[in-house]
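Order emerges. For instance:

***
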Amino acid sequence: MFKAIIIDTKDGQYGADLKEIDESQLPEGDVTVKVQYSTLNYKDALALTGRGKIVRSFPMVPGIDFAGEVLESDNPRFKNGDKVLLNGWGVGERHWGGLSERARVSGDWLIHLPEGLTPKQAMAVGTAGYTAMLCIQALEERGVKADDGEILVTGATGGVGSFAVYLLAKAGYKVAAMSGKSDAETYLKKLGASEIIDRKEYSESGRPLGRERWAGVVDVAGGHILANACASAKYGATVTACGLAQTMDFPATVTPFILRGVTLAGIDSVMCPVEKREKAWSRLAREIRDMDLDAITTEITMADAVSASHDLLDGKLKGRIAVKIQGS
């Protein structure tokens, strides 16, 4: 028997509860992992609260990330005792996820935990930091350099935004951090932001083209924020889109793309190929060595996950939430 959060529907009522279940109930997979840490991401919060249609089948164990130790493996890439991590692949949506003391998954979804990272550190980074690195690599691959100008990061107090601000600033970029939180300035400037942008400036419908300002953008919001970021991007800029915290709508025109040559680059962390994941995580392991992860991370247990999910969606939490699994 082991503990896991189970999301289920009963008599039309949606609920998430911490329960003890039998290992025989685990889904199919060729690797079984003793989960040590998971995380609470925006998508996890939507699933746990029922405020978003994330879960595709019931019952479901949420948690799109986890890190831990291999207990059993029929996959040639892994052996018992290996430290591993997982992000995405539909885990926590279609396949049981990481908010559980045990997980059974396809070994094709796992990567080895990079040297120098503990499971807790890896989950303090989690899908948020990994997605931020994918965005930064996309900017670099498209030729955006530090001396090209400012980089705008939206949703900057969230998980992806916090890591994007830190990683970009460390790489020498001048970062403008967007937030709707009145008390965010100290936090964001400590991460490396040189300027704070009020979210209200970008939250309403704007002009098809604005003043050229951004050499690159990391956007987690979608909606008018993304549209206005594109409209104010410099000639030849790259705008990376990795989230829909505001909305999945994109009320824009083609003007920035055909008159300024702006590139809108979609960033998918869920089905990203293993080779690209390994490159991102290897770089993350190097880049965060001097980062004070504790300063941007709140540690909770599985028992705290549902209440913390409401706080996350209500904008009451900043940074990352690491979920300690063993001993929860």
